[in-house]
Write a structure and sequence with these properties.
Layout (H helix, E strand, L loop, with lengths): L1 H9 L2 H91 L4 E3 L1 E7 L18 H13 L4 E4 L2 E2 L6 E4 L2 E4 L2 E3 L3 E6 L4 H6 L2 H14 L2 E5 L5 E3 L24
Antiparallel strand pairs: 1-10, 2-8, 2-9, 3-4, 3-8, 5-6, 6-7
Helix pairs in contact: 3-5
């Protein structure tokens, strides 16, 4: 024992210190390796379900993204269809309005011309016919026709709108328009281009009317082009067509 103690005392102190340090390091390494096994095993065991959960959530997110994209596409399609439907509706509405204007079913305002026809103030000769000195339905119709030819878009006679079914006839010294009695002076109002008056006065048919009725019998023909324009009322009568029917057209969707 005394010899062992002497050997220990003879060992340098730095060697003892180094040995203790190596011993402590070895202990720490062993402890670390002992603890690493459970840690690696724990991490491996937990990784699989976590990865599976993440992948599942990713799939759900991708599915939701697809639903969002599909919904956006559907909305865009509906908006496009809605815009197309609105455009078609507006087009049909414009066509209907134009048809109503052409048919005289709605009031109109615009630049125009008023022609007033009044009975002659000349004395009827003894051998003359008094009816020749009065404005007739034929005179009114002549003016209406000449206005259409001059570019009129709408015409009225003493507040009665002229439409396709309008009849102008003489009954007992009065003129009947659309079944309503109207008396002289007769005001024929027309809406049309600003050039309508010049066009009218240069038409041979109107010039013949002025010569045959105005100069020969003194029928009064006066003109007015109001700066504020003129107004035409809507046709107030009934429009019953007994013979005319719309022409049936084959459906484009029918199979050949």
């Amino acid at each position: 024992m005394t010899a062992l103690a002497g050997r220990i005392r003879s060992i340098p102190s730095w060697q003892i210190t180094l040995g203790l340090a190596l011993l402590a390091l070895g202990f720490l390494i062993a402890a670390q390796m002992a603890a690493e096994g459970p840690r690696v095993q724990y991490t491996s065991q937990e990784r699989t379900p976590l990865v599976a959960t993440v992948l599942d959530l990713q799939k759900q997110q991708d599915a939701l993204k697809k639903q969002v994209l599909d919904a956006r596409a559907a909305i865009a399609s509906l908006e496009a269809a809605g815009q197309g439907g609105a455009a078609v509706t507006k087009q049909l509405s414009d066509q209907l309005q134009n048809a109503q204007i052409a048919a005289g079913l709605v009031p109109m305002s615009g630049p125009g011309l008023v022609i007033q026809l009044s009975d002659s103030t000349l004395q009827v000769p003894a051998d003359g016919n008094a009816q020749d000195y009065l404005v007739s339905g034929a005179d009114v119709l002549t003016v209406v026709d000449q206005l259409w030819a001059a570019g009129a878009e709408g015409v009225a006679i003493n507040g009665e709108r002229v439409v396709v079914s309008t009849a102008v006839v003489d009954i007992g010294g009065s003129v009947v328009v659309n079944g309503a009695y109207v008396a002289a002076p007769y005001q024929v109002t027309a809406i049309g281009p600003k050039t309508m008056f010049d066009t009218l006065t240069h038409q041979p048919g109107f010039a013949d009317f002025i010569r045959s009725r105005g100069e020969a019998f003194g029928i009064g023909v006066q003109y007015a082009t109001p700066d504020v324009g003129v107004d035409l009322p809507a046709y107030a009568g009934s429009m019953n067509l007994r013979y005319g029917r719309p022409t049936a057209t084959p459906s484009t969707s029918a199979a050949p």
